Amino acid sequence: MTRTGEPDLEALRALSLVAAERSMSAASAHLGVSQQAVSLRIRGLENDLGARLLVRSARGSQLTPAGEVVVGWAARLLASADEFSDAVATLRTDRRRTIRIAASLTIAEHLLPEWIAGWRIRTGDDGPMVQLTAENSSAVIESVRAGSADLGFIETPFLPDDLGSVVVAHDTVDVVAQPGHRWARSGSVSARELAATSLVLREQGSGTRRALEDALLAADCPVTAEPAAVLSTTLGVRSAIMAGAAPGALSSLAVADDIRAGRLVRVEVGGFRMERPLAAVWFGTAPQPGARDFLDVIARRPRR
């Protein structure tokens, strides 16, 4: 038994091999240790159990009746230990073959497809596969903290102190309106009026919404109006704004095509510009090798 009272698996394995091979030397060769080491393990097990388990004779090493019982008990335990070891080995192999990425919706929709394509060009079919989960920035941070993501991409203006991070791109949060809206006709709105107007917004925890609220707070114009609508996807927010529900705020990456096509109009907000970093985050002092290589691919691409 070990100090914690748990079975000594190495001693049980040594005893079981000696019983199967009827030879101390054969067991030592199988385990890759000396005969003395095998003998010491079994002797320690005998001392722990207070029973003689093995006798040596001219016909080889044989189990005592107590040894037969112990070997029978050990069979299931050793099989379970082997299954556990195999499962851990598989987990390690799968982790090496997969990079688990969690990303905010804006980054997942507008930047990661290009980054993943660059990764595949660099690594080919033999490179680790990217497994992507899209969620808001707060959820991304929690996934990285919990260990369910190797790498996270967030758009919140404030980076978590307990995670490693690097800025990989920038964008702005744009206020946009349907072409017929009075803000679209004037082309601008004051920060105070913006803060007092019901807008179409993403949910709490979204980096885009937080960037808007923090910018207005910094301009001494905290949000006072309840949202006109709260939607959990960028597409939902865009569609509601274009349908005339109310103006709203979205990443410049998300609305660039709509602005060029005339489906939405960018509205200037007097007094400030909502620029923010887009960052990668990871747990620990440095990203895992696969995640580090993925970041290297991003670093080599033109910044937006």
Order of helices and strands: HHHEEHEHHEHEEHEHEHEHEHEEH
The oligomeric state of the chains shown is: single chain
Low-confidence stretches: none
Overall geometry: elongated
Number of strands: 12
- The helix content is 40-55%
First-residue to last-residue Cα separation: 61 Å
Please give a structural write-up.
By secondary structure, the protein is α/β, with parallel strands linked by helices. Helices cover 49% and strands 21% of the residues. The strands form three sheets. Strands 3, 4, 5, 6, 7, 10, 11 and 12 form an eight-stranded mixed β-sheet that branches. A two-stranded antiparallel sheet has the order 1-2. Helix 10 links the parallel strand 8 and strand 9. Helix 1 packs across helix 2, helix 1 packs across helix 4 and helix 2 packs across helix 3. The radius of gyration is 31 Å and the shape is elongated. The mean pLDDT is 86.
